[in-house]
Amino acid sequence: MCRGWRYPSVLFGSLAIVAMYLCGLALFTAQGPAVASALIAFFNQMVFVQSRIAMLDIPALAFGLLAIAAFICGFRKRRPHVWFALAGLAFGLSIACKGSGLFALAICIVIVAVIRLMQSWQFADYALRRGNGPRWLLWAFVATAFAGFAAMLPISATFVGTSMETFNRLMIFQTWI
Questions:
Q1: pTM of the predicted protein model
Q2: DSSP for residue 5
Q3: pLDDT the model gives residue 177
Q4: Domain match, 35 and 70 both
C-alpha cells in the first residue's frame, strides 16, 4: 500500500507555516510578532487538516503567503524589482495550484493601484494641511464596511430564514428516533 501521495501536502503545510513567519517578519519587521503569527498558523486546524488530507488548498496557501511576503518586502526596498518578480512567480504557482490564489494577487494589485492613486493626489500633503486626514480615512472605511454589510444583508437574511426552516424540518425527524 502506497501512502506517499500525502507527503507533498504535509511538506507544503510546513512551508505555509514558514511562509506565515516570513509574512509576519516582512510586515512587522520584528521577531516577536513574526513568531506569534507562525504559532497561530501552526495551531490553526485548517492548515493541519487540509495538509493531512492532501487538499490543493495548502500548496496554494503556501505559495500565496510566500508571494505576499515577497510583495511586502518589495515595498520596503529601494529597488524592488527582484522581490516583485519573486512575488509574481509565487502568485503564478499559487494560481496554478488552485484558482483561488487569484484573490491574493487581485488584492495586491488593488493595494498598488490605491497607493499610486493616493500618491498622484498628494493625499498625505492635503490631509496634513487640512488637519483631518485620518478622520476622513476612518469615515471612508466605515462607509465601505457599511456598504458591504448592506449589500450582504438580503442574502444573509434569506440564508438564515431557509436555514431555520431546514433546521425545523430536520428536528421533526429527530423526535421519531
A1: 0.67
A2: G
A3: 47
A4: yes
Torsion, CA 133, CA 115, CA 146, CA 158, rounded to 10: 180
Intervals of the chain under pLDDT 50: 132, 177
Structural contact between residues 41 and 17, judged by C-beta atoms closer than 8 angstroms: yes
Structural domains of the chain, count: 2
**Cell 511538506, residue?**
11
Q: What angle is formed at CA 101 by the lines to CA 150 and CA 10, rounded to 5 degrees?
A: 120
pLDDT of residue 109: 85
Residue 118 cell numbers, joined: 493616493
Alpha-helical (H) ranges within 29-132 are: 31-42, 45-52, 57-76, 81-97, 101-121, 123-130
67, 143: one domain: no
Domain contains 26? yes
pLDDT at 75: 83
**What's the sign of the alpha-carbon dihedral 115, 120, 125, 129?**
negative
Query: Which residues form the domain of 137?
Result: 122-177
Domain boundary among 68, 101, 134: 101
pLDDT at 175: 54
- Residues sharing a CB contact under 8 Å with residue 29, sequence separation 6 or more, in sequence order: 76
